[in-house]
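Our preliminary data section would be incomplete without showing what the modeling component actually yields. Below, a chain of 109 amino acids is followed by its predicted structure, encoded as tokens that our downstream tools consume directly.
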Amino acid sequence: MAAQNPSAFAPKITDDYMEDLCANIKVGDRCEIDPGEKRGVVKYVGRAESLTPGFWVGVQFDEPFGKHDGMVKGVRYFDSPPLHGAMIRPDKVKVGDYPERDPFEEEEI
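Predicted structure:
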């Protein structure tokens, strides 16, 4: 059976995938993405019909680390400057007091 239909035994991602993790993520929250420690602001929380099932978080990064401007596969989820937007799974998003980094601040060695 698996040889005829290999996806028959693949785990199915439901429409509610990671919905519980979105309970504490709100549009306007400052956030940091793990891994990478990229910072930004939450611009969208919910399902993204143009992506795989489940819940997604749209983030506008402070710097141009993103992949788009809030439009994914022809669907606009939020507005951001070019290359500042990304759709990320909620388990990678930490919300809290994550101010913008000063690009001219010297890092301690």
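The CA atoms of residues 32 and 39 lie 4 Å apart. The chain has a mean pLDDT of 87. Preliminary results of this kind motivate Aim 1 of the renewal.
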